[in-house]
Every structure is written in C-alpha cells, then in structure tokens.
C-alpha cells in the first residue's frame, strides 16, 4: 500500500518552492533582445520588401536612365564644370517617399493592427522598444541607400563625360546623402509613433518634404521675399541638392549643414515621442 504524498508546504512570498529548479532558463532581457525582435518583424513583413524594392528601382532606374541620356548628349562644357554625381539627385528625391512610408509603417502600423499591445507585453520598457525600432530602421535605411546611391554614382561617372569628382564629393554623394535620407526616414518613424495613424503620419511627412518648396514657388510678392528665400533654402529638396552642390540659392545651408539640421530636428522629435510614449496608454 502506497504512502500518501505529503503536500509541499507553500514557499514564502517571492521565494521558489524548496528543492524546485525551473527547467526554463531565466534571462534578463536587454536592448539586444528588442533589436532582434524588431529585426525579425521588419524582415518578415511584406511592406518592407515592397517599399525598399520600389526605392531601389527608383534610385537605380532613374539614375541609370539619367546617366544614359545625359552621357549621350552632353559634354563637360554643357554640364558647366559639374561632376556627374549631381545626376543622382533625381532618383533619390523620389526615393525619399519610399523611405518616409517605411519609417511611418515601422511604428504606426502596429497601432493600427493592435500588435503594439503584444510588443509592449513582451517588452514593457516602452523606451527600449522605440529605441530598438529606431536602430533597426536606421541601419536598414542607411545600408540600402548607401548601396543604391553608390552604384548609381559609379555608373554615372563612367557614362558621363564630366569633371572627375573629388574625394569629398564622393563622400557627400554616397555616405552623406545616405545618412540624411536615413535620418529623414527616422523622423518619419518618430512622427508615426506620435500620430499613431499611418495615413496621417505619411501625409504630414510628404507635406513637410514638398509643401515649403511649392509654397515658395508661388510667393511672387516682394514683401514676402525673405520668407520665400527661407522656404527655398531650408526645404528638404534643396537640402538634398546641397549634397550634390546644387543648391537653389547662394546662401543658406552648405557643406554638411543639412545633415546637422536633420539630426537636430530628429533628436527633438525623438525626445517628444519618448515622453508621449511613457505618458499615453497603448
């Protein structure tokens, strides 16, 4: 006859049962785990492949087409002493719309589907989630832009009879422009976190890119000349052109100034998004 089992006495609050060892390893989560999670999400959703695929097609396709057309019809004198790197501007300007869209979807889409509740349950540290999203997105956007712009730059320099670009021009037209566009996408990600609505955040960002330039073009009054000049100089298309030495005016941002301006704006928006994320309900 078997001896009845004596029930295990309950442990003190917060203490494990005596002699019990959990078979599941207990690991303290950190930022690395959040980054791995966000990377898995980014590479597994279709929107990433579609937006980045269209981005590469626009940048490379328009870049090669522009290089072919200009290379067959223009000489170094026709280009006014400019290098062929400036021709990469057109494809990247259109490609920014894809980066903006992906940036917004990285955060706002989770609020639309309700997936954000699962994300915050798995990682209660909201700041860590936003930081992980920002790191993963920035790395992806920068890498894809750098590869695309670098390929176009090499092809255009080879196809167009123009002045050989300097080392500084190469750096700005590849690394500089890639950092700027990645920061622009990161700003879109932050706006998506603040607005929590994909269509609304994308509309705001596209307006921020195009509206200042369009408004400035329709300011004909001499009394608004200063405002017109400011909008032209600090519009995002003009700041993109600065990396190719194609500014719309002789004043305003130059050199690496657009990068520092975008960095400051993005940092301020990130701080605001972090503060709101800690205060609002999921």
Comma- or semicolon-separated keywords:
282 residues; 10 helices
Structural notes for this entry:
By secondary structure, the chain is an all-alpha fold. It is 70% helix and 0% strand. The protein has ten helices and no strands. α1 packs across α5 and α2 (46-73) packs antiparallel against α3 (89-113).
Gist of the model:
This protein has helices at 31-44, 46-73, 89-113, 115-122, 126-159, 167-195, 198-217, 225-234, 236-242, 257-279. The chain has 282 residues and is mainly α.
Strand fraction equals under 5%
Q: Ranges with pLDDT <50 over ≥5 residues?
A: none
- Mean pLDDT metric: 84
| Classification by helices and strands | mainly alpha
> Overall 3D geometry?
globular
Order of helices and strands: HHHHHHHHHH
Helix content: over 70%
Question: What's the end-to-end separation, in Å?
Answer: 58 Å
Count of separate DSSP helical elements:
10
The major beta sheet can be summarized as: none
Radius of gyration: 25 Å
Counted beta strands: 0
């Amino acid at each position: 006859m078997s001896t009845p089992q004596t029930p295990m006495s309950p442990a003190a609050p917060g203490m494990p049962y005596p002699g019990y060892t959990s078979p599941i390893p207990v690991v303290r989560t950190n930022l690395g785990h959040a980054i791995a999670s966000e990377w898995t999400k980014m590479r597994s959703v279709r929107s990433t492949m579609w937006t980045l695929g269209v981005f590469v097609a626009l940048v490379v396709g328009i870049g090669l087409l522009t290089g072919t057309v200009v290379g067959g019809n223009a000489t170094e004198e026709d280009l006014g002493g400019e290098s062929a790197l400036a021709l990469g501007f057109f494809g990247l300007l259109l490609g920014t719309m894809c980066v903006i869209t992906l940036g917004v979807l990285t955060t706002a889409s989770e609020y639309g589907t309700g997936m954000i509740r699962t994300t915050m349950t798995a990682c209660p540290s909201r700041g860590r989630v936003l930081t992980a999203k920002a790191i993963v997105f920035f790395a992806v956007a920068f890498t894809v832009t750098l590869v695309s712009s670098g390929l176009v730059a090499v092809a255009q320099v080879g196809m167009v009879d123009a002045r050989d670009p300097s080392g500084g021009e190469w750096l700005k037209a590849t690394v500089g422009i890639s950092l700027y566009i990645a920061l622009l996408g990161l700003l879109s990600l932050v706006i998506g976190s603040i607005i929590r609505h994909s269509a609304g955040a994308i509309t705001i960002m596209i307006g921020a890119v195009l509206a200042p330039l369009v408004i400035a073009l329709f300011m004909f009054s001499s009394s608004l000349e200063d405002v017109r000049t400011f909008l032209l100089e600090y519009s995002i298309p003009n700041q993109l052109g600065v990396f190719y030495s194609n500014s719309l005016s002789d004043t305003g941002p130059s050199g690496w100034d657009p990068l520092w301006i975008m960095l400051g704006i993005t940092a301020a928006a990130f701080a605001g998004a972090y503060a709101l994320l800690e205060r609002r309900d999921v």
